[in-house]
Task: structure prediction
Amino acid sequence: MSKEKNLELDRLVFFSEAVVAIAITLLALDLRLEKTDIKGLLSFKDMAALWTKFSAFFLSFILIAVFWKIHHQFFAFVKKIDDRLLWYNIFWLLCIITLPFSTTLVSAYFGQTVSVFTYSINILLITIFQNQIWDHVAVRPDYLNDKADGDLIYNYRFDCNVAMINAGIAVVLSFVSPIAGFLVLFARPVMMITLKKIYKRAKPIIMTENQLSKLKDNNVNNLGEENKINKPYLVGVLLLTLILPLLCGFTEWISGNSVFFSLELIGKWVIFWSVGMRQFMAGLKQAFNPSFTAKTIFRIENKESHVIVKELGFANICFGLIGIISFFLPQWRIVSAFGSGLFYGIAGVNHLLKKRSGPNEKIALVSDIFIFIVLMIYIAFTVHNFFLFNDF
Result:
C-alpha cells in the first residue's frame, strides 16, 4: 500500500513539474521584435522599446520559479496524498498555466488597470491554492514525514500568508496606480524579510509537571483549544469583510473613477470581496476540507457532518461566483446582494441562537450580521433609486 501511495505521490510531483516547465517556457513566446517596428537598421532604441515585455517576462519567470521552489519544498515533507490535496494541486497548476496569458496582457497593455488587475488576481489565486495545499497537510500529522517540525510548518504558513497579502495589495493598487501594483509584486522578498523581523512567534508556555498534570486532570487543555482564536481565519475575515472593500472603494474614489464615495461604490466592492471572494474561497475550503469548518466554526468532531459541510461549500461556491461575476456585470449585483444577504442573515441568526459558541463562531456571527446589514442597506438604496428615476 505504501509503495502505491509513494508512486501516486511521485506521479503528482512529476506531473506538476512538467506543467510548471511548460508554463515557464511559454513566457518566452511573447519576447518578439516585429520587423514592422524597426525603421532601417536595428538599434539599441528598438531593443529598449521591449522593456515592458522583458519586465513582465522577468517578473513572471521569477514568480513561477519561486512558486515551483516552494511547491518542491512542500512535497519534500509530504508522504501521503488524498483527493482533496490532488484537487488543490490541480487548481494551483491551472492558475500557473494561465500566467503566460496574464503576462502577455501586462506586456501589451502595461500600466493599464485591467491588465495589472488580471495579472495580480492570477498571482493571488496561485498563492491561495498554494496556501491550501500546505494547510491541508499541515493539520494532518500523518501526511508529513518526521523532518517536518512545528517551526517548519509555521514558517511555511507564514510565507504563504505574506505571499497572499502581497498579491492582495497589488490587486488593490491596480485601481489606483497600476504601475505601483505591478512593482509591489517585485517587493515580495523585501516584504517577507521585513514582516518576519517585525512579527515574532510567541514563545510556548513552559509548565512544571504538576501544573501539566492539573491541566490534564481538569481537561483544561481541551477547553483551551476550543476557546483559541484561529488567527489566519480572523485575518481573512477582516480583510474580506472590511479592509479590502473599504480600501478598494476609497482608492477608486480618489483615483477619479467614481464621482463620490457613495453607498453604491461601497456595495460594489462589498459584493465583490465579502460576497464573491469570501464565499467562493470559503466554499472551496468547505468542499475540499470540511473538517476545518466542522471543528473550528461549528465545533463538531463527528466526521458524518462533513457531508453537510461539503453541501454548504458547494452553495458558497455558487453564491461566490455570482458575486465575482457581478463585478463585470453590474446588473447582477442586486441579485447577488439579495441571495447572499439572506444567506448571511440566516447564518448570523443561527449563530446567535446557539447557547454555547467559541470565539471563532463569534467572529463568524459578527461578520455575517455586519455583511447582512450592509447588503440590505445597499438593496434598499438601489430599489429606492430605481423607483425614483423611473416612471411607472
The radius of gyration is 24 Å. Residues 201-209, 218-225 have pLDDT under 50 and may be disordered. The chain is about 75% helix and 0% strand. The longest helix spans residues 359-388.
